[in-house]
Design brief:
The longest helix has 23 residues. The N and C termini lie far apart (about 155 Å). About 10% of the residues are buried. This protein is about 20% helix and about 35% strand. It has about 240 residues and is α+β, with helices and mostly antiparallel strands. The protein is elongated and about 75 Å long. It has a domain of about 130 residues.
Length: about 240
């Protein structure tokens, strides 16, 4: 083949390839306006099926940047469970009462009584009322005590328990005074008795031992009294 013939063949081949390119790419036209993206003014209506509508839809469904995505709650770890609520019931295996030890408790608050230190009376045999005056002439001491022997440790326990739950005026020990007077009238042919002494707060209760696992043993019932006031009782 001559050089002239080879040049003509190459030119024909290029023309054939150029004319087939649009069909191979699937384009129906080489008009630049047909493939350029549509530009829509803000607020303008978009025709259904138009290129602008397809562009807007693709923008609406475009993935959100990672930093703008809403955070979801962490999923629970497999096998993880919530702990017990505060103040809820404890299982025997979870109970713990420290080193344990002795404690006391009040079962019932009973009627208070007087530890009499001085007693006197006046009897009026007259047909009219007369005045009287009593004055304490003997003294004495009343201390905290119980139906069981109390050590110093238990006396302190009971004193704190009674002060907190029954009577804030209780004392470990109380000594009555001398020369405390009381007076009044006694009717004709009547008698007035006077007792001077120290009032006692009385309770029934118990002492017991609490172990480190909160179990209680060695419980013993007892009655306990403690002084809290002094004065006269007329009857």
């Amino acid at each position: 083949m001559s050089n002239k013939t080879r040049v003509i063949a190459i030119a024909v081949g290029l023309m054939v390839m150029g004319s087939a390119a649009p069909a191979f790419a699937g384009e129906s036209s080489t008009d630049p306006a047909a493939v350029a993206p549509a530009i829509t003014a803000p607020g303008a209506e978009v025709e259904p099926g138009s290129v602008a509508e397809s562009s807007a839809a693709s923008e609406a469904t475009a993935p959100v940047a990672e930093g703008d995505a809403p955070l979801e709650e962490d999923l629970p770890i497999p096998g993880e469970v919530d702990g017990p609520e505060l103040g809820g019931p404890m299982t025997p295996f979870a109970e713990h009462c420290g080193q344990g030890g002795w404690f006391v408790g009040v079962s019932k608050n009973t009627k208070n009584t007087m530890s009499v230190k001085y007693a006197t009376f006046v009897k009026n045999n007259k047909s009219y009322a007369v005045n009287f005056r009593f004055s304490s002439k003997k003294s004495g001491t009343t201390t905290i005590g119980a139906s069981l022997t109390l050590s110093g440790e238990f006396k302190a326990m009971w004193l704190g328990k009674l002060e907190a739950e029954i009577n804030a005026s209780v004392e470990k020990s109380w000594t009555s005074e001398l020369g405390v007077d009381t007076f009044g009238k006694v009717k004709a042919h009547k008698t007035v008795y006077g007792d001077y002494g120290i009032m006692k707060e009385n309770v029934t209760g118990y002492k017991a031992y609490r172990h480190s696992n909160c179990q209680v043993s060695q419980k013993q019932s007892m009655t306990v009294h403690a002084p809290y006031r002094e004065g006269w009782i007329l009857k």
